[in-house]
């Protein structure tokens, strides 16, 4: 009986996971690890629930925001056009009044308006139009200016040119000689509109009421901040939605953690029990479905523990009960006169005794009652190799400093069985160990004749011995590989057997990190 190898590829029960870890280790710093993010949100109940909540809330908010934004913009545009129509009607009345007023009286009326108030417009008379820089990037501002211009052409048509624009109050000129709106005396215009922290656009209307005479009208809209109110994605409107999203996510995560905490404890208990660690029954907590699952697990754990204990007692009882008749039969064979027949009886009884002892040993060795401790695996392998060399065997060892949390006596027994098989059937053995954070691999290769591919799957089954093994070692029982496989699986690892490309067989032990 011998072990094989997983060839020279990185071994392990999850080859792709190991390759991902090595690939992630070489990822340039600063790059987002989308694979790990996908694993986080796709492979856990908490991650999936959180992802569903995030996507659901975002889609719901996106749909509601689109509908709400369209309604808000439509209402804002309608209100802005109505306000522009009223501003245009007032400006049309002013234009008609100045056009009908004699030229000499126009400066007096402007001065009276500035002194007495009573109008929403700031009025200037200029010899030529003033260059005004309109508001850029605001389609609503352009729409309001166009509405005012169209209304003025209908309400107060002028013979000359007409210019309408919405401009920011800062650096807004009111006359061709460079007088700025901010330079005017207080009281001529609302100073709140000039606040640098929150300026409001100014409607500027310039109408040529006669050749060389331009009437300059400046006013704010009825709602000076109509551009802000028409923006559905302003910060003060988005913040409540962000707060709602964050609150829903925090509550969802808290609820999911409460729901999944019992499942996480159940998973850890199942893993520990699978590795042979006896544990107390889990406390029943969580939802009704989770409570039923925990009760079922506790019952299963109790039944399995009782079964293992009964099995060990049964085998011990059978071993004890069978030794007495075997001994009596051996004594009776001494009374036989035929020595050949006597030798045959002795041989059969020795085989029977060995089978009983082997079965009992197999049961005891696969029931591992040890706690995990941190062990230097490289030192354990060095001791095994040194002991084999002291027995006159040829063993090579290639390893680095390796530390793992294992059950030392059980793992040593498994590695000893694999090494004994390699030395017994392959004459010499090569040991190689590697890994650390992503797991530990231990490879033991012999240089024997190998094993037929069809027989590899049978290796490790109790009492299975190949023809080469029976010829080389007649007293074996075929339990060594089975014990080794059970020990490795109890550690959460895996034992792989395969023929080496250059001859011989290799046993590859893969232990997960932990």
Structural description of this entry:
The longest helix has 56 residues, at 45-100. It is built from 13 helices and eleven strands. α3 (45-100) packs parallel to α5 (139-155), α3 runs antiparallel to α7 (235-274) and α8 (288-333) packs antiparallel against α9. The model is unreliable at 1-30 (pLDDT under 50). β8 and β9 (439-446) form a beta hairpin. The strands form three sheets. A five-stranded mixed beta sheet has the order 6-8-9-11-10. It is of the alpha+beta class.
Which SSEs are present, and which pair or pack?
Layout: H1 15-25, H2 34-42, H3 45-100, H4 106-116, E1 122-126, H5 139-155, E2 162-167, E3 202-210, E4 213-220, H6 226-229, H7 235-274, H8 288-333, H9 339-366, E5 373-376, H10 377-390, E6 394-398, E7 403-406, H11 408-426, E8 428-436, E9 439-446, H12 467-472, H13 480-490, E10 494-499, E11 505-511
Helix pairs in contact: 3-5, 3-7, 7-8, 8-9, 11-13
């Amino acid at each position: 009986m011998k072990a094989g190898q997983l060839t020279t590829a990185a071994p392990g029960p999850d080859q792709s996971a190991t390759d991902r870890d090595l690939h992630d280790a070489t990822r340039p710093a600063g790059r987002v690890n989308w694979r790990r993010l996908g694993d986080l949100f796709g492979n856990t109940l908490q991650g999936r629930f959180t992802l569903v909540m995030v996507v659901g809330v975002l889609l719901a908010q996106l749909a509601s925001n689109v509908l709400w934004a369209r309604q808000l913009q439509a209402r804002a545009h309608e209100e802005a056009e109505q306000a522009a129509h009223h501003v245009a009607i007032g400006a049309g009345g002013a234009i008609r009044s100045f056009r009908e007023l004699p030229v000499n009286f126009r400066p007096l009326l402007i001065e009276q308006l500035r002194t007495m108030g009573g109008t929403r417009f700031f009025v200037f008379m200029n010899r030529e139009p003033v260059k005004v820089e309109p508001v850029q990037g605001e389609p609503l501002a352009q729409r309001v200016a166009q509405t005012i211009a169209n209304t003025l052409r209908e309400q107060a048509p002028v013979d000359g040119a007409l210019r309408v624009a919405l401009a920011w109050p800062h650096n807004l000129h009111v006359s061709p000689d460079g007088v700025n709106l901010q330079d005017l005396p207080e009281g001529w215009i609302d100073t709140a509109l000039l606040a640098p922290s929150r300026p409001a656009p100014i409607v500027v209307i310039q109408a040529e009421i006669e050749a060389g005479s331009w009437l300059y009208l400046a006013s704010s809209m009825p709602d000076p901040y109509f551009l802000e109110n028409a923006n559905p994605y302003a910060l003060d409107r988005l913040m409540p939605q962000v707060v709602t999203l964050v609150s829903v996510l925090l509550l969802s995560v808290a609820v999911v953690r409460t729901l999944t905490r019992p499942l996480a404890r159940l998973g850890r208990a199942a893993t520990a029990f699978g590795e042979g660690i006896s544990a107390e029954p889990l406390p029943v907590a969580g939802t009704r479905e989770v409570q039923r699952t925990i009760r079922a697990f506790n019952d299963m754990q109790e039944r399995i523990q009782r079964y293992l204990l009964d099995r060990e007692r049964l085998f011990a009882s059978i071993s004890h009960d069978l030794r007495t008749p075997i001994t009596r039969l051996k004594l009776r064979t001494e009374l036989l006169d035929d020595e050949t027949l006597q030798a045959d009886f002795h041989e059969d009884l020795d085989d029977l005794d060995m089978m009983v002892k082997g079965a009992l040993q197999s049961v005891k060795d696969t029931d591992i009652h040890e706690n995990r401790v941190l062990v230097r695996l490289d030192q354990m392998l060095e001791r095994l190799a040194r002991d084999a060399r002291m027995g006159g065997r040829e063993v090579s060892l290639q390893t680095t400093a390796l530390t793992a949390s294992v059950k030392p006596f059980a793992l040593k027994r498994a590695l000893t069985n694999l090494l004994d098989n390699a030395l017994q059937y392959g004459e010499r053995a090569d040991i190689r160990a590697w890994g650390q954070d992503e797991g530990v691999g231990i490879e033991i290769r012999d240089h024997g004749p190998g094993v037929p591919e069809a027989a590899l799957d049978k290796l490790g089954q109790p009492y299975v011995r190949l023809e080469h093994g029976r010829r080389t070692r007649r007293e074996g029982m075929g339990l060594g590989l089975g014990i080794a496989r059970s020990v490795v699986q109890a550690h959460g690892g895996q034992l792989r057997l395969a023929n080496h490309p250059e001859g011989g067989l290799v046993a590859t032990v893969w232990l997960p990190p932990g």
